[in-house]
Structures are given as C-alpha cells and as structure tokens.
Amino acid sequence: MSAACALAEAGFVVRLVERRGYLGGRASSYLHPGVGEVIDNCQHVLFGCCTNLQGFYKRIGVEERIHWTSAMTMIEPGGRQSVLGPSWLPAPLHGLPRLLAAHAFTLADKVSLARAFRALMKPVPADSNESLGAWLKRHGQTRGAVERFWRLVIASALNAEIDEIAMPYAAKVIRELFMNSAFAGSMGMSTVPLSELYAPVAPYLEARGGAVLLNTSVEGAEWDEELSQWVIETRSEALRSDFVVVALPFEGMAKLLPALPAAEGGDALAAQIKRHEHWPICSVHLWFDREITELDHAVLLDREIHWMYNQSRLQDRGGNYIELVVSATRAFAALPRDQAIAQALGELAEFFPRVREAQLEKVALIKEVRATFGVPPGIDASRPGAISPWPNLFLAGDWVQTGWPSTMESGARSGHLAAEAICAAAGAPQKILDADLQPTGLMRFF
Ligand SMILES: Cc1cc2nc3c(=O)[nH]c(=O)nc-3n(C[C@H](O)[C@H](O)[C@H](O)COP(=O)(O)OP(=O)(O)OC[C@H]3O[C@@H](n4cnc5c(N)ncnc54)[C@H](O)[C@@H]3O)c2cc1C
C-alpha cells in the first residue's frame, strides 16, 4: 500500500493486487464469524519514530485517526501501578523521573537500567553479532530489570526471546523509544479497525488512474523481453506492467520464486529467505458485561499475558471489549484454545479484580503463528534490498533490508524504498523515503 500510493503520487498508474478480500495483510481487521464483531487480527501499535508509516497515513489522509499517548502503565499482579513516560527534562533524561518513581523496579533494578541506558548512549555497531541476552549479562542487569523491562518491553516489541535478538536491533528500539525524544517514544493506536483505516487507498489509486484488485492471487510472472514488460499471472487474468513491486512476506516470496523466470541471483535470494524464521503473537479478545478497568492500555508484569488494550475506549465502540496480547511465546501459542483462554482470564483477574464479578459474554482467540520474522545476530545478511535479480521487478515487505525489525514501519519503509527504486529505473529519480526523526535535547550530541 505504501509503495502503491507513493508511486501513484509520482505519476504512475498503479494496480494493487491483493489475494484477500480486504487490505492490510498482517495488520488488518475483519468480521470474526465466531463473535460477530469486526476485530483487528491483533492490536497494532506504532511509535512517533515510525516516520514512513505516518508518511503513508498522511498521504491517504488518515493521520488524524491515530490516537497518541506517551504514558505506559505497568501493573503488577495484585494491581499496583507504575507509570513510565516523559517529563520536562531534555532527552535522554526525559524518562528518568518516572523510572525512578516506579514501584515496579527495585533500587538495584533502577541502577542497573540507568547503567544500561548510559552504555547505549554510544551507538552499537550495525555489524555487532552479540545477542541482547549476552549484552544484558555483560552489563550486569538485575533479574527484575531483565524480566520486567528487557523481556517484557523490548523483547516483546521485537517479538522474540532475548537470546534470539541481535543487539543492534535492541539498541535501535531503546534509543528510539526511550532516549532520542519524547515524541519518538509516543505510542500510536488506530481509533478505527485497521482495514477501515486503509479505506482511502482504493479511491486514492482510482483517482490517479489505478485500481485495487481484491481476491486476486498472483501465481507467477513472465518477463516479455520484446516489450520490456512483465506479464503477471493471476487465477483470473494476466496483467501487463512495466514495473512490478513484489511486497510479500518472506514465505510468500519463497512460494512465488519457482514461478518467476530463472535469473542469476535467484538461488542466492532463495538461500537468504531460508534463513528467516517466524515468531508467533496471540491475542485474546474478551467481551464482558461491565467495565473491568478505566485504563486504555497497560503492560502486565510477571505473567504470560503481556499487554492489555481496552478496545471499547481506544476505538470508541460499544460494549466492554478487552484485548490481551501475548508476544514471543511459543508455549502459549501451542496451548489448546480453552486452556489458553482460561489462563488469560485467570491472569487478567490478578490485575483487574472486577473480572471475577464480570460475566464473559463472548471470546475469540487468534493465534498468528507467522506474525513476524526474527532478528537474530547476523540476520542482516539475509535481508535483500529493493533491487531484485530480475529487470524492473523490485522487492518490498517488512523483511527486506530497512534496518527496522518486523513492523508496519519496516513494511512502509520497504514500500517507499521500492518506489524510489522504480522512479530511478524510470529515469525520474526522486526522494520518497520519509526522513528519520532527529534526536532532541542532549541526544543531538550522541
Ligand atoms: C499478531 C500480530 C501483531 C503485530 N503487532 C505489530 C505491532 O504492534 N506493531 C507493528 O508495527 N507491527 C506489528 N506486527 C507486524 C506487522 O503486522 C507486519 O510487520 C506488517 O504488517 C508487514 O507488512 P507487509 O506489507 O510487509 O506484509 P503483509 O502484511 O504480510 O502483507 C503481504 C500481503 O500480500 C498478500 N499476498 C500474499 N500472497 C499473495 C499473492 N500470491 N498474491 C497476492 N497477494 C498476496 C497478503 O494477503 C498480504 O495482504 C504484528 C503482526 C502480527 C501478525
């Protein structure tokens, strides 16, 4: 979507071909038949530092539909709350007063976190092969800091175990969310279901001569040397095009590869894709007969469920709809449905006692086993750029080389990079990538 809209703005006539009946891919919403409600396949959050995702939202005119917040409430079992967030101090000290006041961390935890943050003032070299787990050991992090901050906040943002995360990615998340500026770390959430957020994409492309083709699966492609055009095979028709962006997840690209013409570099790309691995995210969607909390969202400590989103408040919809998210936990993803729901409900009651009196009206469990790709040490060697082994065919998707982990921002960036590559190949180079946010305060000097 980001590539298509940027290219349409640049003057190309773009057809966006999507296998499903709605837009959004892994970040979408749909009518869940079991509960009769439109739900996101999972809560998706963005941050102030996600400049290309915001650039895409601005292009299609939906940036006002994002609700921003800078406070992160952490709750311990039993209900005690701590709130992290910015103060008037300049970056990177802006989060310090609330961290120092947080009950969730002991004095030793706070000292060890402050030490780690100080070490991260110096950027981690991009080619470092150290894992986050090894780095935390080397920097003497306490058990509380590891469990309640590094594992819960950082590893869950990167959706993997701490030993499976390359330190440059962890450092990027820390610097962007907690150090560079107060706005970079603000959290954004859509106030409407995700696919509704993208509703302007089709009219945007149509107004510029293009179209969205839903329920249309790409099965293969041939290069017409004579006309210098691609012939894209779908189940219903063949589409001709001067340029193609293939914006699939890595396993989708692997499936398409055998249906593309042989090309030098095709095997190397296949080998890169093989090195990628999926991580799951599960979400439990609960409707109660009464409100169980006035909070919009919270981080839940020391239990299997990690995040609580109060969707009735965030999306301004009726009922008492709570969504719980469990990231990076293969064990939870393997639980049978009833057991997973019972565990989530039991844990929720430890944080919000009103759950015990409330009636559960309906529930949906969504297990996305292919939610994200991991970013273990060395993964960058397996992230190709936008240029592919084929003429006039460019790669996008969150897994291509953007420097970002598996996020909507990485997807949007990859689309903008592919759009830039097409403009250059068409002889009209232009800048499409949105610039990164500049660090503020003292971070300008680091
Ligand atoms: C449960 C869950 C929670 C997440 N939480 C967050 C979060 O909080 N914040 C965040 O930033 N990111 C989050 N992510 C990650 C984020 O959703 C992805 O990084 C992002 O959506 C990737 O976008 P993409 O366009 O690269 O790929 P996709 O979204 O996978 O899009 C690929 C598209 O290609 C289509 N397609 C596949 N094969 C074909 C074919 N043959 N022909 C035509 N179309 C095809 C698919 O239907 C899909 O629409 C989460 C992901 C999941 C699953």
Brief synopsis:
The protein is α+β, with helices and mostly antiparallel strands and about 450 residues long.
How would you describe this structure in keywords?
single chain; 446 residues; alpha+beta; seven-stranded mixed β-sheet; 15 helices; binds flavin-adenine dinucleotide
Structure write-up:
With 446 residues, the chain is of the alpha+beta class. The chain has helices at 2-9, 51-59, 96-101, 107-119, 132-138, 143-158, 167-179, 194-197, 201-206, 250-256, 266-274, 311-314, 330-334, 337-351, 408-425; strands at residues 15-17, 29-32, 37-40, 45-47, 66-69, 72-75, 81-84, 187-190, 211-213, 218-224, 229-234, 238-241, 244-247, 278-288, 297-300, 307-310, 320-327, 360-373, 393-396. Strands 7-6-15-16-17-14-18 form a seven-stranded mixed beta sheet. The two termini are 35 Å apart. The model has no long low-confidence stretch (mean pLDDT 96). The structure holds flavin-adenine dinucleotide.
Give a topology summary.
Layout: H1 2-9, E1 15-17, E2 29-32, E3 37-40, E4 45-47, H2 51-59, E5 66-69, E6 72-75, E7 81-84, H3 96-101, H4 107-119, H5 132-138, H6 143-158, H7 167-179, E8 187-190, H8 194-197, H9 201-206, E9 211-213, E10 218-224, E11 229-234, E12 238-241, E13 244-247, H10 250-256, H11 266-274, E14 278-288, E15 297-300, E16 307-310, H12 311-314, E17 320-327, H13 330-334, H14 337-351, E18 360-373, E19 393-396, H15 408-425
Parallel strand pairs: 1-9, 6-15, 13-19
Antiparallel strand pairs: 2-3, 4-8, 5-8, 6-7, 10-11, 11-12, 14-17, 14-18, 15-16, 16-17
The structure holds flavin-adenine dinucleotide.
The site of flavin-adenine dinucleotide has 30 residues, from strand 4, strand 18 and helix 15.
